[in-house]
Amino acid sequence: MFEFKLIIRNKKWFLIFFLVLVWYLQSKIPLWRGHLEIDVWDYYNTISLFLKNQSFASLKGNEILPGGLLFFLFPLLLSINNFTYLNFLNSFVVLNLILLLLHFLVYEKNLSYFKLFPFLLILLVSGPILLFRFELFVSLIVILSILFWQKKRFFLSVLLLGIATTIKLYPIFFLPYFLYLGFINFKKEKQLTSTFFLLVYFFLGALLPLFIFTVFGGRIEQFIYSLSFHSEKPLSIESIFGSIFIIFNLALKGMPPPLLGTHGLWGLNWSSVKPQWLNLVSLFPLGFLYFYIFFKTKIKRQLSGSILFLIILFSLVFSKNLHPQYFFWFIFLMPFIKTKKGREIEFFKISFLVLITILLTQCLYPLLYTQLIEGFFKDGRGIEIFYLLLLRNISFLTLVIFSFHLIGVKKNLE
């Protein structure tokens, strides 16, 4: 029995290292690297300015939150002896590969063998985009937060959740669920006080990177600017609302709407709707989900990976920006989805929908992104690529509805 388990474990790590190798090789191929490394070039310029002035004080027009800026210090340290863009890029890629391996180490027993193959297959077809972003950093901290909560280290868990929120904002969507779970898990006479301190620890976690950021010369107004920068981003071409807007333009004018190149993305010029309104609209599905969870279901005292998975899905479904890396916010939660005995097939159904969605996403960005922008949007040619984008969004919408049906209605997944 021991030898059998050892063989399985070795095969598991063989598959994981195969994934690492494929991602690394893809990251060297211009077809992937060409578009993906543009963000790393911006990161390099940001950290070069920091290195020149020994301070974040001179940063202007910066969209990265303090936790993300601090992450850039790690590839800087790895390439400090010969600080060039190429060395910074290589350090960035290697650091993300290490973070990927750490994910599999900290998953522990949550990544059972029947989940391993579909999970690795999803990552394999997603392409190497995560090697050029810092999603792996924030997702690792979120995973640690979940694991500490499972071990009933509630205060340390929300502290980490607060830290993660200063890297990317999406972990804050989990906070109401964590607070509610804390409330029902604490002793009755300490429920209000302990829940309040959970909130305090969350804000302490959020303040820690912000404090370190100020130690390195950063200013609070820079942090506020980065928040407003994201809120003012236009409707992106990849979003579901964006697809609807494009369809209306094609039907009424026979051409896609003009592009709006601003805030680091290609957006759509929907002049009659302010970006801030779209931010509010995107919260409606999440509000509905929380209403359903709190008032229409009986919540268990244990943290549910399935509910965390749903929270991210519902936060993205009407989001004005649906960039490829955002899909990994819920993909890295999949190992925490628990299946009822005899219902393992339900996990594979969700995995299949995620697989289709992420495969289509990689085809659109980076593989066919030039044709999408230059051909379809600017010249009105190659409408087939837009159909591919539309199919991706239909696939994602199907995933959201199907997951809610399985988790929220039928309760086949926990």
TrEMBL record:
InterPro entries referenced in this protein's UniProt entry, alphabetically: GT87 (IPR018584)
Cross-referenced Pfam families: GT87 (PF09594)
Record localization: Cell membrane
Topology in the lipid bilayer: Multi-pass membrane protein
Keyword presence, Metal-binding: no
Stretches that traverse the bilayer: 64-81, 88-107, 119-147, 154-180, 192-216, 237-256, 276-295, 307-332, 352-373, 385-407
Record family assignment: Belongs to the glycosyltransferase 87 family.
Name listed for the protein in its UniProt record: Glycosyltransferase RgtA/B/C/D-like domain-containing protein
Organism name: Candidatus Beckwithbacteria bacterium CG10_big_fil_rev_8_21_14_0_10_34_10
